[in-house]
Write a structure and sequence with these properties.
149 residues, single chain, alpha+beta
Length: 149
């Protein structure tokens, strides 16, 4: 039985634990074979080297994510919105959402990134865990008819 609230909560919990640097929580949120990627929509942003990743396996993913998180400031706030399930295939639940991140600059909340996150949440019968997390950050705008799917 699919627990939609638990799926949503997992995604929200991931971003909160990431932002707060709750490194001890991360392993329980990820499958052993987790695959995480991130990049900009063009692959050519000025900060591409900082955001680009393609990591597999819990150990490698945690190592990269920790390095990435420690290099960013605090507070950092990732917000997931418009989360919805695209399909269910056995124990794998394909989910998509928008992501919006902010930090503080000169005492003001400052937007730093936004984009689309596609993930696979997997149930092992006891808990839901992230099996895939693929983030594409928005860096340029085009006419709707010129977008690439």
């Amino acid at each position: 039985m699919l627990d939609r609230l638990a799926v949503h909560e997992l995604i929200h919990r991931w971003w909160f634990a990431f932002d707060e640097g709750q490194f001890d929580v991360w392993p329980e949120l990820l499958t052993e074979d987790i695959h995480i990627t991130s990049r900009s929509d063009t692959g050519k942003s000025p900060y591409e080297e900082y955001i680009a990743s393609d990591n597999r396996g819990r150990e490698q993913v945690i190592a990269w994510q920790r390095q990435h998180r420690e290099a960013a400031g605090y507070p950092l706030r990732h917000n997931a919105s418009n989360i919805h399930i695209e399909r269910v295939d056995g124990d794998d639940i394909s989910v998509v959402s928008y992501m919006y991140a902010t930090n503080i600059t000169d005492g003001q909340i400052t937007p730093i990134a936004g984009g689309v996150v596609r993930c696979v949440v997997r149930s092992d019968g006891a808990a839901y865990r992230l099996a895939e997390l693929h983030t594409v950050l928005d860096t340029h705008a085009v006419a709707f008819t010129e977008r690439q799917a």
